């Protein structure tokens, strides 16, 4: 079963800064914050840069991988 992107990341909040992994709230995509320009941010999703509002971002971190159950 394939997990959704949202299930792989945990929102940690705080002020986003360049280099952070962030989630775009309006579409749920996770990418890397590469630049901040006034109240806008450039977020790299794969190789595609997206220009989004800074207040539409939340800082996230990858959840630890779940260990397989053992007997």
What does this structure look like?
With 71 residues, the protein is mainly β. It has a single domain (5-61), classed as SH3 type barrels (Roll), CATH 2.30.30. The chain contains one helix and six strands, in the order H-E-E-E-E-E-E. It has one helix at 5-8, and strands at residues 9-11, 21-24, 30-37, 40-45, 48-53, 57-62.
Identify the notable features of this structure and list them briefly.
SH3 type barrels; six-stranded antiparallel sheet; 6 strands
Strand content: over 45%
| Total individual domains | 1
Which radius of gyration do the C-alpha atoms yield? 14 Å
* Distance between the first and last residues' Cα: 22 Å
Structural class of the secondary structure composition? mainly beta
**Under the CATH scheme, which architecture would be assigned?**
Roll
Helix count, per DSSP?
A: 1
Whole-number mean pLDDT: 87
Output the CATH class name: Mainly Beta
Q: How are the strands of the largest sheet arranged?
A: 1-6-2-3-4-5
* Low-pLDDT windows of residues: none
Note the topology:
Blueprint: H1 5-8, E1 9-11, E2 21-24, E3 30-37, E4 40-45, E5 48-53, E6 57-62
Q: What's the short story on this structure?
A:
The protein has one helix and six strands. The protein is mainly beta and 71 residues long.
